[in-house]
Amino acid sequence: MKILLGTLKDKGDELAAFLEPRIGVKPEVGGGELDIEDSSIKKGIRSRHVKTYIKRFLSIEKVRDDYRVLVESGELRLVELEGEEEEEKEEKKGKGKEEAKPTEKEVDKEPASGEKQAEPKEAAEAEKSTPSK
């Protein structure tokens, strides 16, 4: 099994040390990737488990939001998210907050007394003008 580190190659040794007790073998570090012999991995450990361990490592290093872990045919790849995607997420969060604020203000703000009384009168007049059966 291969783990391609991408821009995280400087943390390869730390990741190898983190994975060793969990998968039962120390991965070989070299050239921006970790190599793990499939035959020496603990019984029952699959690439899905290793992916979870890598995500946990990224969380501990506080870079989980910056990377994505992809699994392709037994090969794991750490892909750094681009700054634009992060900005889009922030914009969406910001828009959601902005939309929520006017709604809260509208709920908190009482309409003018003339507006509130005009609606029921109009509805009552409309009912009177419609013919009843």
List the helices and strands and how they pair.
Elements: E1 2-4, H1 12-23, E2 28-30, E3 33-35, H2 47-60, E4 67-72, E5 75-80, H3 83-108, H4 113-129
Explain what the structure shows.
- The chain is α+β, with helices and mostly antiparallel strands.
- The protein has two domains: about 1-80, Gyrase A, domain 2; about 85-125.
- It has four helices and five strands.
- It has helices at about 10-25, 45-60, 85-110, 115-130, and strands at about 1-5, 30, 35, 65-70, 75-80.
- Strands 2-3-1-5-4 form a five-stranded mixed β-sheet, with helices on one face.
- Helix 1 (about 10-25) packs across helix 2.
- The longest helix is centred in the C-terminal third of the chain and has 26 residues, at about 85-110.
- The chain is elongated, with a radius of gyration of 29 Å.
- The model has no long low-confidence stretch (mean pLDDT about 75).
